[in-house]
Each structure stands twice: as structure tokens, then as C-alpha cells.
Amino acid sequence: MGREEQIIKERMKKIQGLRDKGINPYPHEFDKKHNIKKCLKSKGKKVKTAGRLMTKRDLGKIAFCDLQDETGKMQIVFQKDKTSEDVRKKFKDFVDVGDFVGVEGKVFKTKTNEISILVDKMKILTKTILPLPEKWHGLQDKEERYRKRYLDLIMNPEVRDVFEKRSQILSAIREFLNKKDFLEVETPYLQTVYGGAAAKPFETHLNSLDIDLFLAISPELYLKRLIVGGYEKVYTIARNFRNEGIDKWHNPEFTMMEIYQAYADYNDMMELFESIYEYVIKKVNGSTKVKFGKKALDFKKPWKRMTMAEAIKKYAKIDIKKMSEKELLKFVKKNKVDYKEETWGWLVQAIFEHFCEDKIEQPTFILDHPLETTPLCKSHRTEQDKKFCQLIERFEPFCMGAELGNAYTELNDPVLQRKLLEAQQKMLKKGDEEANPYDEDFVNAIETGLPPTGGLGLGIDRMVMLLTGQESIRDVILFPFMKPEK
User: Fold this and answer.
1) pLDDT of residue 136
2) 233 near 462, Cβ under 8 Å?
């Protein structure tokens, strides 16, 4: 019999032993009056608290344990002549590391100056069966930590700090936008027609109507419908689902915030984007500066602004505005750059991704993208008639080589919108899995009238990564996607 099997067998005996004595090892409730944080500040006072036992050191006449709840950890003491024999015996015979217990007693300071509770009363609240990971080794394996997040949270309390900060970040975002009169709304996760991003969707089926559905890849098209309907400032913090690769920046299920504002353009969205980041990081971290790996980042506005052409000129040493499609293709093949299509815009996009993205460390807006990269954005007001470069009013913020979001001056010409989505539908039928399907109802909404509008998307998970110094998206999602073990 292995060590764990032996522990399980012994604990099952203790559970039966408690029941034989008429003690319920799983009582319905406990009147916890004080958390550990408050107990630590209550020297000389009687307290009543509860938590999980993390250590147990029984020295005979005296026993020491660490009791942990969500606010911290505190020592509790069982001492002969001061703790009743009945309580000490129950503790010795039936309590193991990992169990939940409720205790009452007076807070005092030990000879080693550790604030502790001298236990008068104890109640077993949950008798555990499985042992916790060994104290000194903890839970170190990354895969196991993600797969069994509950153990990760028990053994590595600093992990809880990250997710508490994530909650604070979301609250600060809402606080900022609500102060500016944005209305928070909800959009469908199950959709008959997906759209709003270049991504492959997940498919499912609705049995009651016998129709195929898609999990949302973006809330964009629904939020624009709300602007058509008369709302002028809306946002949603939504889950998106994209059937794409998994790496330190990507998880198939992730959280995105999208914002739409009538009578605004991408310049307004740039100012809004950097203002959100600056407000949130000051609110949560108390400073615009943060350490990410070995890099010191500063999110103080204004952020640096570069056009995509300027970035390529700086890092790839070519001037795309003076190069034809043929010249770009020659350059791409010479440098072994992967590209999507042999068009001017997709070649430019490929060059930027290959030469520039990973060079951008400090928060930077990359402006004026090629026309081909999205069918939902307005043409650039000054660059649309140039010989080679057909550009749109789009920007992406980058930091540490990662895209933090996306924003447009939204396309509101219904004739052009119909034409572009029809072209996307043809690409989809030809096998481009990331092309947008044609959405007749969305086109009808634009035909009803979409005012000039600015829109932006902000990746929540990546924001949390940067503001908490976590270098993998799995460290900021409580339950990241994991391949099943069996």
C-alpha cells in the first residue's frame, strides 16, 4: 500500500471514529465571528474563528498549528492545563493537516513573540480525506497547479493575491467608464452568425430548435446595433471563444472589454484606451510603473504613437509607402516571412508581425493599418487615395511584444459595409477559416443608420498579466484550458 493510500485509510477510520462518538465530521455551519486578519489585531481579546489547518506540531503537553483563511495565517495553541483535556484529545486523535476547524480562545503573544490563539473550544468542521501536498515541496509543477487550481490556492497564497487584484482591476475599469456615462450591457455568447473579429469559432448545436450555433468570438456587431438603436456610449466585459493556438498570451476562452462611442473616432479611442490603463494601474498599484520580468514598464499617458509604416521603416529598414505589391512580395520571400495572401495589405501586415511586434516593449500605439486587415473599419481620411498604401483608421496598442487591444473609426457606409462582408463571405467559402461570415441583420442595422462611431477592444487577461507581473495568461485565469490527462 502506498503512502497516500495509507493516509486515506487512516482518515476514513477517523471519520468513522467521530461518527461512533456522535460527532458529525461535516456539520452544517459555524458561527465564525472573526477572520484571521482581525484576530491578529485582537491581542488580549476572546475570538471565534475558523479555517484550514496547514501545519500540526504536537509536542505532548503543548501543540502548535497554523490556521489559514482567506485573509491570512495565524498560529493556534493547545496547551495542557489551559486547554481542556477533552478538546486536546479530540485534536490529537481526530484532526489532521488540511482539516477545517473552528476555534474559540484568547489571543496572546508566545515566548517567541508570535501572536497566537490559546484554544478553549474546537469544532471539527470538515474532515478531509486526501492529504495536501508536502509542506516543503508545495505544489510546484505548473501543469498540476493549473489543473488543480484549488490546491494552488491553498499552498501558494500569493496566487490568491493575483486574482484579488484582477477583481480590483475589473472594478476600477467599471468605475472609470461609469463616471464617464458609459452604459454596461450584455451581448449573446450563443450566436447564429458570429463576427467582429478574424478568428475561427467554436461550433455547437441547439437541440430544441435543431440549429447550429457558434460561441461568440467578439461582441462587436451587437454593440454597434445598440449604437444604431440610440445608445451613445456602451461597453461590455465579455467572454470570447476562439478556436486558436494556446501560448503564454492566448487561451481559447478569454475576457475582452469592448467599448463604442457615438460621434467619436480612433483618435478619441486612443485617448480613452491610455486613460483607462493609467487610471486602473494608479488605482490598483498606486503608480503607473510596473515590473514585468526584467523590464520596467510605464503606462503613464500619453503613450508613444507610430504608424505601421513608421514601425516597419524603423525595424525592417524599408519604406512600404514607396513599394509596390511585387516589391513587397520579393522582400517577404527573401526574408522567409510567412504571409496570408499576396496582396499589398497582407504583405505589409506580415512584415510588421515578423520584424516589429516583438521589438515593442513600452506601451505604444501602432496606427493606420492596411485596408485588407478588417472589413469593419473606415478608410483613412488622408491615405486612402495613395498609389500603393490603402489604409484604414485602425490602431493596436502593443507592449512587451503583445497586442493589448484593437480599435477603429467604425465603418458606417452601408453600401461599402455590405460589399466588404460579401467579399469576406467568399473568402470564408474558399477556406479562410478566420474570414467574417455575411450577417444580413447587421448590414440592415447599418442601413438603418450608424452615426460616426469609435470602437475599441481591450484584452482584460493581458491587462491583468502586465499589471500583476505575470508572464503567462494561465497565471491570470483561474481555470485555464488544460488538455485532459486521460
Assistant:
1) 43
2) no
Q: Distance (Å, rounded) from C-alpha 227 to C-alpha 453?
A: 8
Q: String of b and e for 181-202 (b: at least 16 CB within 10 Å)?
A: ebeeeebeeebeebbbbbbebb
Residue 129 confidence (pLDDT) above 70: yes
Half-sphere exposure of residue 91: CA atoms within 13 angstroms, side-chain side: 30
Cα–Cα dist 290/295, whole Å: 8
116: Cα within 13 Å, side-chain hemisphere? 18
Cell of 38: 482581525
Give the separation between CA 66 and CA 76, rounded to whole angstroms. Answer: 6
**In 59-178, beta strands by DSSP E:** 62-69, 72-79, 100-109, 115-126
Q: Nearest CA to 39 among 77, 88, 73, 79?
A: 73
Which of 301, 481, 300, 470 is closest to 402 using CA atoms?
470
Q: Are 438 and 425 in contact (CB under 8 A)?
A: yes
pTM value is 0.92
Percent of the chain whose predicted confidence (pLDDT) is above 90: 87
Q: With a cut of 60, say whether residue 237 has pLDDT above it.
A: yes
In CATH, what number is assigned to the domain containing residue 54? 2.40.50.140
CA distance 440 to 163: 40
Interatomic CA distance for residues 49 and 31, integer angstroms = 8
Spatial distance between the Cα atoms of 137 and 310, rounded to a whole number of angstroms = 50
The residue written with cell numbers 478566420 in the block is 434
The residue assigned the cell 497566537 is 116
45 and 177 together in one domain:
no
Q: Does residue 144 fall inside a structural domain?
A: no
pLDDT tens-digit series, residues 277-309: 999 999 999 999 999 999 999 999 999 999 999
Please work out, in degrees rounded to the nearest 5, the angle formed at the alpha carbon of residue 174 by the alpha carbons of 180 and 275.
60
Same domain, 84 and 171: no
pLDDT, one tens digit per residue, over 51-98 is 999 999 999 899 999 999 999 999 999 999 999 999 999 999 999 999
Query: Which residues, in sequence order, are bridge partners of residue 395?
Result: 367, 407
Assess whether 315 and 181 both reside in one domain: yes
Instruction: Looking at the structure, tell me whether residues 37 and 168 fall in a common domain.
Output: no
Q: 410, 376 in Cβ contact below 8 A?
A: yes
21 φ/ψ angles, rounded to the nearest 5 degrees: -90, 5
- List phi, psi (to 5°) of 459: -75, 110
Instruction: Indicate whether 287 and 422 sit together in one domain.
Output: yes
